[in-house]
Structures are given as structure tokens and as C-alpha cells.
Amino acid sequence: MPYIKKEQRPQIDKLVQPIIEHVKSLPVEDQDGSINYAVTKILKNVYPKKYFHFNRALGVLTAITQEFYRKIIGPYEEEKIQENGDVE
Fold it and tell me: Does residue 49 belong to any structural domain of this protein?
């Protein structure tokens, strides 16, 4: 996860919370597209249209993917292995 300083988090949380609430209120089949749209909109408006910045954006997306797996999915999978047994 992006470990920003704790004093920076409330302002971002305040801005992100309405998006979270909106996406959660949507039918499940519309949630992924809405998240994709929001992230793409942020990236397109933050990073200038230059290859260097496109690489930065891809780096951020890659880091998000890896950290989400490490912190959320990996522990969930370990929990399920303990619960149901590993693949033989």
C-alpha cells in the first residue's frame, strides 16, 4: 500500500469516500468498469502526455497490483488453504 504520512490520509480519504460509496451502490456488474474509469480519469489528468510519465503511471499501477496481492489476496489465499487444504 502507499504508505503516505498519516496526516495526509484524512484529506484523501474525504475525497475518495464518496467514490467508494457510489461504486458500492452500483450493481456488481457495473462496479469494475466504474473503478477502471475513475482510476483512468485520475491518471490521465495527473500525468502529462509524455512517455516518461506514462512509465510512471504504469509503475504506480504495477505497484498497486503487487501490493494488493501481497496485503489482501495472499493472506486470504493462506486462510483458505488452512480452511480447505492446499492443492495436491
Answer: yes
Q: Which three cell numbers stand for residue 74?
A: 495472499
For helices 28-46 and 9-25, angle between their N-to-C axes, nearest 10 degrees:
140
Q: What is the spatial distance between Cα 18 and Cα 6, in angstroms, rounded to a whole number?
A: 20
Write down the pTM of the prediction.
0.84
On whether residue 3 sits in a domain, the answer given is no
**How far apart (Å, rounded) are the C-alpha atoms in residues 31 and 19?**
11
pLDDT in tens, 1-46: 567 999 999 999 999 999 999 999 999 999 999 999 999 999 999 9
